[in-house]
Structure formats: structure tokens, C-alpha cells
Amino acid sequence: SPEGFDAAAGQLNCDLFVLDLTTTTWSADSALANLRADIRTRNTPVLVFGEQMNDLRASSLEARYGRVWFVAEPLGERTLPAQVRAMNLPSPLMTAEDRQYLQERSR
To answer: 3-class SS at 101?
Structure first.
């Protein structure tokens, strides 16, 4: 939801977004477009999970939005952290200075 996005992005400390395609009200394209359009989240890695996505669709979203990884369900509360660590995802590219600038600008 827009409120959830604003709450997460407003904290300026998100290292990873996890997008569950089975519960989101936005399509993967809309959610990723919104994340990439905002300076606060445009470089944050996104882990998308849901039903098995075909390779062509997954490749298309990765090519269009960048820094997107896919994991097919089923996922477990205990297995997801291990899977994320094994992926060795990059950290967000927003620097501490970028975050400070945005925080000062929002005051």
C-alpha cells in the first residue's frame, strides 16, 4: 500500500525490501516502479517471492528495474534468512550523506 511504502521509505534505513507477490495490492511492475522512482529506495535490493515465476518474466523485471532477486515459494520463516544470506545481496547504494540530506530536507 502507499502508506506502507511511505512508512518504510521514510525511515531511510531499509537494506532490503521483501515483496510477497501473493499478498501485495500492486503488481510486481507497479511496486518495483514505485521503489525505483523514489530517491530513498531506488538502489535498495528487492527480494520478490511468490509462485514460481517464469525465467523470462523474472529476467525482464531484473533488466528493467535492476537489483531484483526472485525466490519461489514455499518459503519458511526459518529458511528465508538463510536463503537471503546465501544470495550475498549487495547493500543499498544510498550513502549516509544521502540519508542525512533527505532527513534535513524533510524537516
So the answer is: helix
- Output the tens digit of pLDDT for each of the chain's 107 residues: 667 777 777 766 778 888 877 666 778 888 899 888 888 888 888 888 777 666 667 788 889 998 888 877 666 667 777 777 887 777 766 667 777 777 787 77
Q: What 3-state DSSP class applies to 83?
A: helix
End-to-end CA distance of the chain: 24
- What is the 8-class DSSP label of residue 67? S
Grid-cell match 531511510, residue found: 12
Distance, C-alpha 84 to centroid of its chain: 12
Whole-structure pTM value:
0.69
Distance CA 66, CA 76 (A): 26
Side-chain half-sphere exposure of 93, counting CA atoms within 13 A: 8
E strand residue ranges, the chain: 17-20, 46-50, 68-72
